[in-house]
Amino acid sequence: MTAARQAILDLVERFARNVDLYRSPSCNESQARHEFMDPFFAALCGEKKTFRVQEDPKGRSQ
């Protein structure tokens, strides 16, 4: 099993264990992104980096 696949499986298991927390009003988007989504997408891409929203030339979020 590749490291990326194992990382994704671990994240999915952690999400399943904490699903009530992620769905609760006390968990904001930033917290969920930091704890689950950023590492998930980093594992998918095979990279360890921070994902950032980039602005298009007209100033709208992409």
Description:
This protein has 62 residues and is mainly α. The chain is built from three helices and no strands. Helix 1 packs antiparallel against helix 3. It has helices at 3-17, 19-23, 29-45. It has one domain (1-62). The radius of gyration is 14 Å and the shape is flat. Helices cover 60% and strands 0% of the residues.
Condensed summary:
The chain has 62 residues and is mainly alpha-helical. The chain has one domain. The protein has helices spanning 3-17, 19-23, 29-45.
Question: What tags apply to this protein structure?
Answer:
3 helices, 60% helix, mainly alpha, 0% strand, single chain, 62 residues, flat
How are the SSEs placed, and which strands pair?
Elements: H1 3-17, H2 19-23, H3 29-45
Helix pairs in contact: 1-3
Average pLDDT number: 77
Task: Sum up the overall morphology in one term.
Answer: flat
Rg from alpha-carbon coordinates: 14 Å
Oligomer: single chain
- Biggest sheet overview: none
